[in-house]
Design a protein that fits this description.
With 434 residues, the protein is an alpha+beta fold. The chain contains 13 helices and 13 strands. It is 53% helix and 18% strand. Strands 1, 2, 5, 6, 8, 9 and 10 form a 7-stranded mixed beta sheet that branches. It has a 4-stranded antiparallel beta sheet with strand order 4-3-7-11. A two-stranded antiparallel sheet has the order 12-13. Helix 6 (213-224) runs antiparallel to helix 11 (365-390) and helix 7 packs parallel to helix 9. It is elongated. The termini are far apart.
């Protein structure tokens, strides 16, 4: 055995300039099973389990090493992982005697290069036919991969998905570090509930729309048209207030219907599109909405366009929502909660902004039309910049400025209200003096 250790070190030296001292373990607790994703440094794994790499020999460079170590014994690797990983659920108070082990299956094994180092990437599934995500109690994990032989080896573990605990890839929960003297950890699920999962996804929907400067800008461009009507191919002083409110409701409803439809369809897996073309299409919708503020090119088709544009924005919403491994009922709950978060923010924006736009548009239309045109020009610049960036073409970087402005949106709404109140008060004083 010492000879094997020496051989491993000799092999590792020319291949790995900086031998990795740590592994990573990501855990997904899904509706009917638990999924593990392991990233194990090959040099350390060879020291701990040389039988996995029976054809290993010295290599001159990383590419050659990748070819050599990719010819590993998958059966030996699977057996090794089964011997050194155990997941169990606690079914009673006595942890020593009341643990139900979950049988493990190996879903995938692959040697890959990452940051100049070779790693064995392992996908493991732990099945439990009685598993219902919200009802499972605490889990225990016994894990000493590599660390049983390499005593300074560390594995950084994290819970990446657990709907009932409100854990998503955006809010990963760190677990205790696994190492030679700490090979046993417990995953506390005493607070797990479906309600917590629904609330977490609802908050995720709220944050998504608030952080999405492109969605906010598109919605604002739609609302800016409501106090105006098209006459002789130009925007003119608009309809009465109730008519403007009805136009706003129709526009927002069409947009909402569109993005809700595609969010559900894509969220349930019935439609799958790459995120890159969707993001480019969103930039195109903003550009069209911006041009429409400069000149009413969409005309009477504005409501239909709002619905079609909503379909595109819904695909982007779905791409940001992870429904991996959830059963149908949980998926539907998740989609409803996420949509509710989006719609709450959207409704709040409409209620906060629309009254000001209607008042300003009816009392000072000339200034309002200029304001709408300037906003349309800035939105067009932003849309072109976003489109070029998402096409990975050279462009001016306006994202930082736009995001900074979007973060100040509450203050901008307050400023809009102050301006509106000042306009109303000023108008009344003029009328009183006459």
């Amino acid at each position: 055995m010492p000879g094997l250790l020496v051989l491993a070190l000799l092999l590792a030296k020319p291949v790995f300039a900086h031998p990795a001292q740590s592994s990573t373990l990501s855990i997904d607790l899904l509706s009917d099973h638990a999924a593990f994703e392991l990233h194990l440094p090959v040099d350390q794994l060879f020291i701990a389990a040389p039988e996995i790499f029976p054809k290993a020999h010295a290599a001159q460079n990383l590419d050659e090493a990748l070819t050599i170590f990719s010819q590993f014994d998958s059966a030996a690797a699977a057996d090794y992982l089964r011997q050194h990983i155990r997941l169990a659920s606690v079914v009673g108070r006595d942890h020593a005697s009341d643990e139900l082990a979950w049988p493990m299956t190996v879903a995938g094994l692959q040697v890959a290069e990452h940051n100049g180092e070779l790693q064995l990437v392992a996908q493991l599934n732990f099945e439990n036919p009685a598993f219902a995500n919200s009802s499972v109690g605490n889990l225990v994990l016994d894990y000493d991969v590599i660390a049983h032989r390499v005593i300074n080896h560390i594995t950084y573990a994290s819970l990446r998905r657990d709907f009932a605990l409100g854990v998503t890839p955006e809010s990963t929960k760190l677990l205790p570090t696994l190492q030679h003297h700490n090979t046993h950890i417990e995953i506390d699920r005493t607070q797990a509930s479906t309600l917590l999962g629904v609330y977490t996804v609802f908050v995720q929907g709220v944050h998504h729309i608030l952080a999405g400067a492109d969605h906010l800008l598109f919605l604002f461009c739609l609302l800016l048209t409501t106090p105006m009507v098209i006459k002789r191919g130009r925007w003119q002083s608009g309809p009465k207030r109730f008519t403007a409110i009805r136009q706003a409701l129709l526009l927002v409803s069409a947009f909402t219907l569109g993005h809700t439809l595609t969010l559900i369809v894509a969220g349930l897996g019935w439609l799958t599109l790459p995120s890159a073309p969707v993001e480019v299409a969103i930039a195109l919708t903003i550009a069209l909405a911006a041009i429409n503020l400069l000149k009413p090119v969409l005309k009477k088709y504005l409501y239909c366009c709002a619905g079609v544009f909503g379909l595109i924005h819904g695909l982007a919403f779905a791409n940001s929502l992870s429904l991996l491994g959830l059963n149908l009922s949980t998926k539907l709950l998740t989609l409803m909660a996420f949509t509710a978060g989006i719609e709450l923010v959207q409704a709040a924006i409409v209620m906060a902004v629309l009254p000001c736009l209607i008042v300003l548009g009816s009392r000072h239309f000339r200034c309002y039309r200029q304001f709408a045109a300037v906003t349309g020009g800035l939105a067009l610049v932003a849309a072109v910049s976003w489109g070029l960036q998402r096409l990975q073409l050279p462009s001016f970087n306006s994202s930082g400025i736009i995001d900074a402005v979007a973060q100040q949106s509450p203050f901008l709404v307050v400023a809009l209200w102050v301006l509106t109140l000042a306009t109303v008060i000023g108008r009344r004083k003029v009328c009183a003096s006459q």
